[in-house]
Amino acid sequence: MNTAPASSAAAGEPRWLTDEEQRVWRAYVDATTLLEDHLDRQLQRDAGMPHVYYGLLVKLAEAPRRRLRMTELAKDAKITRSRLSHAVARLEKNGWVRREDCPSDKRGQFAVLTDEGMDVLHRHAPGHVDAVRQAVFDRLTPEQQKSLGEIMGIVAEGLQPSEAGADLPWLR
Predict the structure, then answer these.
(1) pTM of the model
(2) Which of 28, 75, 76, 113 is placed for a possible disulfide with 60 were both Cys, Cβ 3.0 to 4.6 Å?
């Protein structure tokens, strides 16, 4: 709700979004919600897994020796450790990931992408890439793609505080 321009807000009052900021914000929320749903449905239909699980498999495939500490995987995926633990349990059940104890830290564990998990990625990556391309990149000019990447980088950087005690999902 826009009740006052951002520049005229009195001290202590919210800096309400302008009409144009409200339009941009709602377009962003709509687009990201629809995109996540689109990709989730595509992966559920074609691979039998949600988008977040696919992302975990990709991160493990890109890691040295296809393994990451669970805490690092949670950080990379931007999800809570609890949600990661549940996801990895499901991926283990499918035989796509296994856990290994960390020899240097008795409390730590690694998530490791299995050969079967890598095969799943290879089979389903083309369809997923096609869905991403059709939903995003085919709709944008190269200049818009560059701008989108720069804008999202700025937003992401601003939301990842580095100070101790920051309220970040992978720390919960």
Answers:
(1) 0.84
(2) 113
